[in-house]
Amino acid sequence: MAMVGMDNAGDIAAAEVKGAGLPTPSLEKQVAIEHQKEPFPAPSARSSSIDDDEVRKPTQEQLDTLRRVPAKIPWIAFTVAFVELCERFAYYGTTAVMINFIQQPLPDGSTTGSDPRPNGQPGALNYGQRASTGASLFNRFWAYFIPLIGGYLADAKWGRLKTIYISIGVAMVGHVIIIVAAIPSVISNPDGALACFFVGLLFFATGVGGFKPNISPLFAEQLSERAMHVITLKSGEEVIVDPALTTQRMFMYFYFFINCGSIVGQVSMVYAERYVGFWLSFFLPTLMFMFCPLILLAFHKRYNLREPTDSVFGKFLLLTKHACAEGGYKHIGKATFWERVKPSVVSVKPSWMTFDDAWVDEVARGVKACSVFLFYPLWWLAYNQIDNNLVSQAATMSLHGVPNDLLNNMNPLGIIIMIPIIDNIVYPAMRKAKIRFTPLRRMCASFFVACSAMIWAAVIQYYIYNTSPCGYHVGSADCEYVSSINVWAQTGSYVLVGLSEILGSITGLEYAYTKAPANMRSLVFGLYQFTSALSAALGQAFVGLAADPLLIWNYGAVAIIAFCTGIAFYFIFTRPWDKYEEEMNMLKESEYKGHNLGGNSEKKVEETPEQQQRAPAKEIPV
């Protein structure tokens, strides 16, 4: 896409590459001296996938003074992004009309659930807001619980691409069953239709769960450059090509494709629901979903693929147990917790310790990332409001011919507009001004923006109650009137949630990829996706507030939680860890591929002279 331009992309592509590498270990030493603590184990070595004869190492002076830019994103990565677009079209196109399908009654004279009148309300099963909210939360919980399994299977057994193919097949079964639930003859029996819908939803969410933790790392792994290096632009300016910025940009535009699929799927399906019926709004996403396997098969041989590595997760558990043994748990929170169980340090190695020091460094970094994700369920709690309660809120406002489930498209539309602006204007300006808007700072900011979105929703709900003839029961089935407030007043909530996603959700994907061990990326992505499942389960506690007259309390409580979580996130993660972001990104990628180092069962891990002389790590708490 033309929009996916980069800072000086043409210059970078045309620049003459002269030399390479990464900062010397003195950079780490200087950081450690400056801060007098070492919360992350010192990396065993620096990573570089670029030949030292072909590119230039940045010196310490260049690191401090030169502008940093991302590299060009390889075109093959965008085929994976388009697959994600198709899948998101199918997912959001289906779930966008689910609330109305379950909550609202079948309109008079309709057999398909359609209602094309100016203020008409499509519906089918008439089970109410709590039932529809519960169904939405169940779908989100199951779709984001399964990534734990899908991620493990991809890393250890099947590989990413095979896992994606199988997941697509399972999801397709779910799509077909959901279509059946919306056939007019089935809708006429609400209990039977609901049962059929839930069976389809189970298959559908299972397939989504296997797909999600694998498509993101498959996209990012199409980038081959891993080392920081200096190039000279056509203008004569020297810049540093920073892989961390490239990864950040890749996930920004991956999310751009996600939201393109989301908005097209949602907008088209709410009109299909309104003017034709639910069967069409479930059928069209299924057709779009069929493009996923076709595109992957067409480009299969061009993808960079990582082979599954058998029992790597088992090795992680054994390593953690070994680190905790014999009083090792006392070192939790100190650099020595992982340092003392590196193969180069352990005098008598267990038979399962067939990896290298670099893999232990990657594991330590991955554990840090996963601890950051513990706060994400509380962020998703605010995000989830746009999928259920805000859709129901719109139904109590003056629609003026706009479907009540159309407004939530302001969220992906806002994201599509904001991503190019932030990536091409805001972030480069901040880098030029030497403002470090690191992943941990972006994550922290996302909680406060989400809080603002919920405050907006609470204020709108207050005025709905005060402008409707039905007062605090405007959403009840007995109320024939709605508030005089125009439904477009909701726009602020959706746009703010979208900005919060750019800061929080995109950065979460980036963080999962850059901090996870290379042979455990799908699993770590699965853990990241699982935070949404935890949020859906937590959201069940708020279902009691998801009805009149308590909705102001619902949005207000979520706003308070987001604000308090942002404060806690800053003091627990952002403030103490932020200064070590670059140090973590430059850890060497391990050569460990599975049962043993490099795949040879007879190969032993040998210590280098540098490793043999290594001084014990400082026992300083994080």
Report on the architecture of this protein:
The chain is mostly helical. It has helices at 9-14, 26-35, 60-65, 75-95, 98-103, 128-145, 147-158, 160-181, 184-187, 190-220, 243-275, 278-289, 291-298, 312-324, 336-339, 357-372, 376-383, 389-394, 410-432, 439-467, 491-515, 521-539, 551-577, 581-585, 609-612; strands at residues 16-17, 67-69, 229-232, 238-241. A four-stranded mixed sheet has the order 1-3-4-2. Helix 4 runs antiparallel to helix 10, helix 6 packs antiparallel against helix 22 (521-539) and helix 7 (147-158) packs antiparallel against helix 8. The longest helix is centred in the middle third of the chain and has 33 residues, at 243-275.
Keyword list:
single chain; 622 residues; mainly alpha; Growth Hormone, Chain: A; 4-stranded mixed β-sheet; 25 helices; globular; disordered N terminus; POT_fam; dipeptide transmembrane transporter activity; membrane; transmembrane; MFS_trans_sf
Taking pLDDT < 50 over at least 5 consecutive residues as the criterion, the unreliable ranges are 1-53, 598-622
Summed up, the helix count is 25
Number of domains: 1
Note the gap between the termini.
43 Å
CATH architecture: Up-down Bundle
